[in-house]
């Protein structure tokens, strides 16, 4: 049975993960190891007057003054008007958010380190906290970074002839939208264990990261070490979602202290640290004006986007990635010609923004999909019909949109049609009317998006990043026993790459995945990769494995031809064997001849051997686009504001499906996160920048009782620009739920005159919208 591309192979990694045999940072124990705890700022904004260490324990407490030889984390950008920030691993002079690291304490146990941290005295003079991004744009706002003279990391501008549309467009729709700040909440928080290896002359850092090779670069740069002196190992990683794809200040502090003290030092993040001080995401504000014809055909869009990106610019993706993605991706899958958009990346006294599953697109999808429904209501048509007429048609593919995004392939309108059919739109409308007569309020909503995946060099360079990702490398080797070893610098933290990369190698070499081992996440033994983010793993790393395995398969056929006494072009690989007619040799026979019995090979044998390293870039450098439509049916209780999801359908096209089983898991998990965005998750702050959601009793995550039974279908439109036609898929399903669910809520509450334009759509927000609608109706009488 084949275990290559397209097969529903069970994940290789699940056995160790489910039986407790996995090894995370918290499971590693080295001789003489001590634990670390951080002293964190209790205020959002203030000047540090003093940090006093407990008497007699000074050697166990380190502050910014001790780390004077460590460079601050500084993510530069080549974009005009960009303001760079310096984030010291331990705060120096000022603190800029609650939870910012001020000192690091070490002790034999975590409990002792935490007790020691309690004894450190920090004297801070409070400053006015900047907590509202819209107000922070004002000239009279307090400043997070005084040297800038404003609170703007960056402003960008797309220009289009909007003024002509204002004079001529028959339909004009104006809306404001807001999305809440969120935390990522992977099952395993951040964690770092560092020690100095005297024999290797290296700082060895075990860290829970998605990007080990990038972290190696960052550590060497900011610690002032040669990259050959740094080895980064990502062991098993319990989820990341983007949170673990930037250099963390804790990684720098722990690494410095380990080298300074000569003993292994470990720190692991607890849930309260994550909720208070962990990087945040998603907080957007939109002002949108859409122009359309009498039938709802979109003519143009005018937008202002403000993103609250927190206090610092993360390395290497910067604070501006979110707004740059928002401005470039707001048009989404729609076919129109005039676009104007201004974006503001605003500094506030909150933790820094990092990329989170979908990077900006959950926000832009929410804003765009609610706008499409608002246009449909304005022209009196079914929203899904207006949506289909505005989507880029298959006949126009490949298509370059108004922001120069190059859509490589697909049939976007079909995804809506399939969702309409699967969720029975016509039947639902009849059921909806009957339910209203019974005092029940059902609604249906659709949401369509494109996901730019496997972004290439040109895309990242256009964003002005200090480090520009591009290609990936991988090594594929046949061992002396005939098994296969794959090495990739990428990493797996839940997405199943150990299995899918093995399947790509299996496709070429026809070896069962059980005989293919995959090594990832160790800069000391793997080829270079910038890591796992932007739905790039299977396109980039999978492409590299495919190239290497293809070359290796050619070598296998040439060696087999000699052993079988035939021409190499007559050799075929199947079932892990090389065949010439009915005769065959196994991969073990071939490997044994190469490694152990070279006397069986010709004198002019190809000396490149049975180990191949190849690099890969797609044929185009602008990313490949997957797309999907989500459809939701909800019931809203107007007395409590509770939203219950009755049905949820996803139609997705991500190119060639390497493993449909894993793909379904990605879709269901992403949709669950998207439902958290739509209905539950919200980081709240008071006027002083104090977080109000510092435990999981306050920050609400959806559980099994809140999730529907997802229904899922796929199309396979192969990308013409990638190996095997693969497109990225990891982020997709998290993008659309906000739009689909809130469109459904608005459809359910239409009899009340309610239109909700912010997420999460919590019961209090729904009730507030109902009360406001009733007040408007009373005032109109």
Strand content: 15-25%
Shape annotation: globular
Q: How far apart lie the N and C ends?
A: 73 Å
- Derived structural class: alpha+beta
The largest beta-sheet arranges its strands as 3-5-1-13-10-11-12
Nearest-integer average pLDDT: 96
Q: In DSSP terms, counting alpha (H) and pi (I) runs of 4 or more, how many helices? A: 19
What is the C-alpha radius of gyration, as a whole number of Å?
Answer: 28 Å
Main sheet characteristics: 7 strands, mixed
Instruction: Return residue spans where pLDDT drops below 50 for at least 5 consecutive residues.
Output: none
The helix content, as a percent range, equals 25-40%
Number of strands: 31
List the helices and strands and how they pair.
Blueprint: H1 14-18, E1 34-40, E2 46-52, E3 61-63, E4 94-95, E5 101-107, H2 110-119, E6 121-126, H3 133-136, E7 152-158, H4 162-168, E8 171-179, E9 182-183, E10 191-197, E11 202-207, H5 212-223, E12 230-233, H6 249-261, E13 265-268, H7 271-277, E14 280-281, E15 284-292, E16 298-310, H8 321-329, E17 338-347, H9 361-379, H10 383-390, E18 399-400, E19 406-407, H11 412-423, H12 425-437, E20 441-453, H13 457-462, E21 472-478, E22 484-488, H14 497-509, E23 516-520, H15 537-564, E24 572-574, E25 577-580, E26 583-586, H16 587-595, E27 611-616, E28 624-636, E29 643-653, H17 660-679, E30 710-715, H18 737-748, E31 758-759, H19 763-780
Parallel strand pairs: 1-13, 8-31, 11-12, 16-17, 22-23, 29-30
Antiparallel strand pairs: 1-5, 2-4, 2-6, 3-5, 7-17, 8-15, 9-14, 10-11, 10-13, 15-16, 18-19, 20-28, 21-22, 21-27, 24-25, 25-26, 28-29
Helix pairs in contact: 9-10, 9-18, 10-11, 14-15, 17-18
């Amino acid at each position: 049975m084949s275990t290559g591309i397209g097969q529903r192979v069970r994940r290789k990694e699940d056995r160790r993960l489910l039986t407790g045999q996995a090894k995370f940072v918290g499971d590693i124990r080295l001789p003489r190891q001590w634990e670390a705890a951080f002293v964190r700022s209790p205020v959002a904004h203030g000047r540090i007057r003093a940090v006093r260490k407990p008497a007699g324990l000074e050697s166990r407490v380190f502050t910014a003054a001790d780390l004077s030889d460590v460079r601050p984390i500084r993510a530069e950008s080549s974009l005009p008007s960009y303001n760079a920030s310096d984030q010291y691993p331990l705060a120096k002079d000022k603190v800029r958010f609650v939870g910012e690291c001020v000192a690091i304490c070490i002790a034999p146990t975590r409990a002792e380190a935490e007790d020691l941290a309690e004894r450190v005295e920090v004297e801070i003079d409070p400053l006015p906290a900047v907590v509202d991004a819209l107000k922070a744009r004002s000239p009279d706002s307090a400043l997070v970074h005084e040297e800038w003279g404003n609170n703007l990391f960056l402003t960008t501008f797309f220009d289009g002839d909007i003024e002509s549309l204002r004079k001529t467009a028959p339909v004009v729709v104006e809306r404001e939208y807001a999305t809440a700040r969120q935390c990522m909440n992977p099952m395993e928080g951040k964690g770092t264990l560092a020690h100095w290896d005297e024999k290797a002359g290296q700082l060895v850092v075990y860290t829970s990261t998605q990007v080990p090779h990038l972290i190696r670069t960052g550590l060497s740069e900011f610690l002032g070490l040669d990259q050959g002196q740094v080895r980064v190992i990502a062991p098993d990683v319990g989820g990341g979602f983007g949170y673990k794809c930037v250099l963390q200040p804790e990684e720098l502090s722990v690494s410095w202290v380990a080298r300074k003290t000569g003993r292994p030092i470990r720190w692991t993040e607890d849930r309260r640290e994550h909720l208070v001080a962990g990087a945040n995401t998603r907080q957007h504000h939109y002002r949108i004006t859409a122009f359309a014809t009498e039938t709802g055909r979109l003519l143009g869009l005018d937008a202002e986007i403000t993103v609250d990106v927190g206090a610092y610019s993360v390395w290497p993706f910067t604070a501006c990635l979110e707004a740059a993605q928002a401005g470039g991706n707001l048009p989404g899958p729609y076919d129109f010609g005039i676009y104007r958009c201004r974006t503001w990346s605003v500094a506030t006294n909150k933790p820094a923004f990092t990329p989170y599953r979908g990077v900006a697109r959950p926000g832009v999808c929410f804003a765009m999909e609610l706008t499409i429904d608002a246009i449909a209501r304005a022209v009196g048509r079914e929203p899904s019909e207006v949506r289909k007429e505005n989507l880029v048609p298959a006949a126009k593919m490949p298509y370059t949109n108004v922001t120069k995004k190059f859509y490589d392939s697909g049939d976007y309108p079909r995804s809506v049609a399939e969702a309409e059919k699967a969720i029975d739109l016509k039947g639902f409308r009849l059921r909806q009317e009957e339910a209203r007569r019974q005092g029940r309020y059902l609604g249906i909503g659709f949401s369509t998006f494109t996901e730019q995946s496997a972004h290439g060099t040109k895309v990242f360079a256009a964003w002005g990043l200090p480090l520009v990702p591009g290609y990936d490398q991988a090594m594929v080797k046949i061992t002396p026993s005939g098994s296969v070893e794959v090495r990739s610098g990428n990493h797996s933290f839940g997405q199943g790459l150990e299995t899918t990369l093995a399947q790509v190698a299996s496709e070429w070499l026809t070896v069962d995945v059980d005989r293919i081992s995959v090594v990832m996440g160790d800069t000391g033994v793997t080829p270079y990769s910038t890591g796992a983010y932007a739905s790039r793993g299977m396109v980039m790393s999978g492409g590299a494995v495919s190239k290497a395995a293809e070359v290796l398969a050619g070598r296998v056929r040439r060696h087999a031809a000699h052993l079988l006494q035939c021409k190499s072009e007559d050799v075929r690989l199947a079932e892990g064997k090389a065949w010439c007619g009915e005769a065959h040799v196994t991969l073990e026979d071939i490997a044994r001849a190469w490694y152990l019995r070279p006397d069986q090979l010709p004198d002019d044998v190809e000396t490149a051997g049975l180990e191949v390293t190849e690099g890969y870039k797609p044929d185009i450098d602008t990313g490949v686009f997957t797309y999907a439509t989500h459809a939701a049916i909800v019931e809203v209780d107007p007395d409590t504001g509770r939203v219950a999801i009755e049905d949820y359908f996803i139609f997705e096209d991500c190119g060639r499906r390497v493993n449909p089983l894993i793909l379904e898991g990605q879709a269901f998990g992403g949709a669950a996160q998207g439902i958290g965005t739509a209905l539950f998750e919200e980081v709240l702050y008071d006027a002083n920048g104090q977080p109000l959601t510092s435990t999981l009793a306050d920050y609400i995550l959806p559980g099994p009782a809140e999730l529907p039974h997802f229904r899922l279908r796929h199309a396979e439109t192969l990308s013409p620009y990638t190996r095997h036609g693969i497109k990225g898929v990891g982020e997709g399903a998290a993008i659309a739920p906000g739009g689909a669910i809130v469109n459904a809520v608005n459809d359910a509450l239409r009899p009340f005159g309610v239109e909700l334009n912010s997420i999460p759509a919590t019961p209090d927000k729904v009730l507030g919208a109902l009360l406001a609608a009733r007040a408007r109706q009373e005032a109109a009488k």
